[in-house]
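Q: For a teaching session next week I want to show students how multiple molecules come together into a single three-dimensional assembly. I've collected the sequence lines for a complex. Could you give me the predicted structure tokens for the whole thing so I can convert them for display?
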Amino acid sequence: MMLHLLNRSPQFDGIYWDLSEAFGAEDHLLLIEDACYAALPAAAASLAAFGGRVSVLSEDAASRGLLDRLSDGVTVVDMAGFVALTATFPRSLSWF
Amino acid sequence: MTDDETAPAADTQPISLDLLVILRHPPHGSSWLREGVDVALVAAAFGQAVGLLFQGDGVFALVEGQGAGPLGQKGTHAQLAMLEMYDIERLWVSASALRARGLTLADLALPALALEADEIDHLVHAQPRTLLF
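A: Of course. Below is the structure for the complete assembly, covering every listed component.
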């Protein structure tokens, strides 16, 4: 079980592919910073490999004007939720 | 790890290193690759069992025939040649990254093992510590 943190927008498709190769069946992906753009419906293809186990950080999505535009399949977590995720998963890996 | 997972390749499952370094950046354009290899060498110098996984443009780090930059910048090929001296002999590359770049294992300057996506998943999850560059 691993929590993957990603901060790159979907225009960097190589990192999404590399992450998908390392992504396990019990893993979770948290989109932060510019990766919030991957939570838009138009970018759904970039998240297809992650089996719906994807969250986006609400503070970062809000600052980019995205909160009302997010895909239904992406759960929204706030900073407290971020902390809870890091406590839930024994290990975290940051992709940047 | 769940019981119903299919058996991974024999080459990836039993290996638990002290440190896995994932390298995703190509040589010359930035210092990411150099810094990642430096970390691996330092860890190995302190007796840690270290392995390297090359993904994305990181596979270009292994391409045979690299040299210094046009202004004499050192590149990373000399650093990589030191891996064996530091007992860093476990080198893995993403098979899909090779394919996407028209490369095969024969194009690489060092012996490496190509892993498919499910094998990379198993490799990464078998390691207690992973650093990504």
